[in-house]
Specification:
heterodimer; A: 289 residues; mainly alpha; two-stranded antiparallel ribbon; 74% helix; globular; B: 345 residues; three-stranded antiparallel beta sheet; 15 helices; 5 strands; 68% helix
């Protein structure tokens, strides 16, 4: 039964990984950018939340109301004035610049907040759960994460399919030059996509800060988890990230049955195996939606 | 300097002369050899503190040179070269634990890393661009988690390299100073010789235009693999110097992605795609690091910001900015065609 419990916990944990993957998938799907600072942006959200809680005394579970808008606006302007410039000088530059951003962000957090590990205090919610049977319990927090991931993916989906701006974003993703000919301002639309990606990764960071403690150097491993979820789920496929996230969640909890260290290693091994066998992912899609 | 006379076409009576450098490169070679000799004799008169600083600089130059060979010539942006730093360091540790003299393990560690790079290249070369970058990073993470599972290798906290006690502090410092100097000299020389070779022509062609290079039948894949293996050995060399100079091996240190940040920043600041650039960049990096030593990690924040700025606005780096004013090349790897005037008349 512990195995069944591990499977259930793993699938629920998938929500957290999917939140990380959602923004990466969107950025790659729209402008073929892999933001290597993705994990550090998530960690920055945790530290911003800690500062905001200290000032406003808002309950940690509601801090996203303040943090996410900051990251949405920051994502738009970060794209317009920073990533776009590197995009103009080629894909290698974008990789190098976002990697540089990752290192700078991590060390700025280290200077400002020290290397101590911190978490968002959500009281007893961190351990409360619904007891389904004697062996299986469903933690509220994991269920909230999975719910948040589904809602976030749905919002992105509806935005891309049902709004005029969303359709333009997809048009630019499919064929930038053709979209430009009918009047699409691709720089603005890239900014919009980056804003959504930044908003979801802030959510992912807050979820992480509630689930476990983070340090300024936690970012890169969550970038790798998020990226692995994107690749396993299929490149550029938005809903595939949920499947990828669940696969990674399963690998984590089932691996932890062997020992905790193996639990952090197995997701990477699954990722490498998928890369070796099917580099385009298990469920590749040609278009974003 | 080599001079090759090449007849160009039957209709021209004039001949052009192709040389490897515009000016005789012998003075540059002499300067390099003299500098190397001075560095090698430094233990006779320099202070110990200065020498251990130089060891760190040599490690940085080696890493930057290797990363530049990958990214600057064949467009492989690796974020996981710390894998081979770790492999080098752990091979020193493992063999020293089994009775080897620590310095004698260095050639084996280099060879081991090169051998390991062959299967690794088949995995990561399936991918390109960002996927390649992340896959190399994941490999390094997996290796770090893997070695941490062995209690005999110090587990997650690391352990001391045995067999270094008998040297005496001064002798040991001199020995690993020469080791790191040797590794650095071999790395720079290795890249230089590779670029001068037939394969080097492919490398510079790939640097300038990969699709163009492929379309004229260059063996691009072979060239890429050769560079990847060379870079693995070079980074392992840096890893051996690191293990012996720090007297211990710790997984969170040797497999740290921070090493990649050092390499990338040094190369971007110095200038990507030249042999001189990474050396200049590593020195600039090192000087700033030493100057700001009392201000925690601000050196890394400043260097990162400068490197990002240069990646966007000044791709040629410090060396490129310098050579655009003063046409000088310490490492003649290009070809110059003389005699156009004769050809036209």
């Amino acid at each position: 039964m512990t195995f069944v419990n591990a499977v259930v916990q793993g699938l629920l944990l998938g929500g957290l990984f999917a939140l990380f993957a959602c923004g990466l998938s969107l950025m790659f799907g729209v402008m073929e950018v892999i933001n290597l600072a993705h994990g550090d942006v998530a960690v920055a959200a945790v530290y911003l939340a800690l500062s905001l809680i200290a000032v406003t005394h808002i309950p940690a579970i509601w801090v996203f109301v303040l943090v996410v808008p900051v990251f949405v606006v920051g994502g738009y302007f970060g794209q317009r004035f920073f990533v776009q410039r590197s995009l103009d000088s080629g894909p290698v530059t974008t990789l190098l610049v976002t990697f540089g951003l990752s290192v700078v962000l991590e060390n700025v957090l280290l200077e400002v907040y020290s290397a101590n590990s911190q978490s968002l205090n959500i009281g007893s919610l961190v351990s409360d759960s619904v007891q389904v049977s004697s062996q299986i319990s469903l933690p509220y927090l994991s269920m909230i994460f999975l719910g948040t991931a589904v809602v976030a993916l749905s919002i992105v989906h509806l935005f891309l399919t049902r709004t005029a701006t969303g359709r333009m974003v997809r048009a630019v993703a499919d064929d930038r030059e053709a979209a430009q000919m009918v009047g699409a301002d691709y720089r603005h639309l890239f900014g919009v996509a980056a804003a959504m990606a930044s908003g979801t990764v802030a959510l992912a960071g807050l979820a992480l800060g509630m689930y476990t403690s983070v340090t300024p150097s936690s970012g890169p491993s969550y970038l790798l988890y998020g990226f692995a979820a994107v690749v396993i789920g299929g490149l550029g496929s938005l809903w595939g990230t949920l499947i990828g996230g669940m696969t990674l969640g399963l690998a984590t909890t089932v691996g932890s049955l062997v020992d905790p260290d193996f639990g952090s290693m197995l997701p990477y091994l699954v990722f490498l195996a998928v890369l070796a066998v099917r580099p385009r992912g298990l469920f590749p899609k040609k278009a974003l939606i | 300097m080599s001079t090759v006379a090449v007849p160009v076409g039957a209709r021209t009576a004039a001949r052009v002369v192709v040389t490897r450098s515009r000016r005789p490169a012998t003075w540059a070679g002499a300067t390099g050899t003299a500098a190397l000799a001075v560095l090698a004799l430094l233990p006779l008169f320099a202070s110990q503190g200065f020498m251990s600083d130089l060891v760190n600089l040599f490690i940085l130059v080696t890493l930057a040179t290797m990363w530049n060979a990958l990214a600057g010539y064949v467009g492989l942006v690796s974020v996981g070269q710390q894998l081979y730093i770790g492999v080098g360091a752990y091979m020193v540790l493992y063999l020293a634990q089994h009775g080897w003299e620590p310095f004698a393990t260095v050639p084996v560690a280099l060879l081991g890393a090169a051998v390991l790079a062959v299967p690794a290249s088949f995995l990561v070369f399936r991918l390109s661009g960002a996927y390649f970058a992340i896959a190399t990073w994941v490999l390094a993470q997996v290796a770090a988690l893997f070695v941490a599972r062995f209690a005999s290798l110090g587990g997650g906290t690391g352990t001391a390299v045995p067999g270094l006690d008998g040297f005496g502090a001064t002798n040991l410092l001199h020995d690993y100073y020469w080791l790191s100097l040797g590794v650095t000299a071999l790395s720079v020389l290795g890249v230089y010789l590779l670029l001068r070779s037939r394969l080097g022509l492919v490398l510079t062609a790939v640097r300038d235009n990969e699709i163009g290079a492929r379309s004229v039948g260059s063996r691009v894949m072979l060239a890429k693999r050769a560079v990847y293996i060379l870079a693995a050995a070079g980074c392992a060399g840096a890893g051996t110097a690191l293990a012996i100079s720090q007297l211990e091996v710790e997984p969170s240190n040797v497999f740290n992605v921070q090493w990649t940040a050092y390499m990338i920043f040094a190369v971007l600041i110095g200038g990507i795609g030249t042999i001189e650039g990474p050396v200049i960049g590593a020195i600039a990096f090192f000087v700033l690091q030493q100057t700001l030593a009392n201000y925690d990690v601000w050196y890394l924040i400043i260097l990162g910001a400068v490197a990002m700025g240069m990646a966007i606005w000044a791709r040629q780096g410090l060396w490129g900015l310098f050579t655009s004013k003063v046409p000088v090349h310490f490492f003649p790897v290009g070809y110059y065609v003389h005699g156009y005037k004769d050809y036209k008349s």
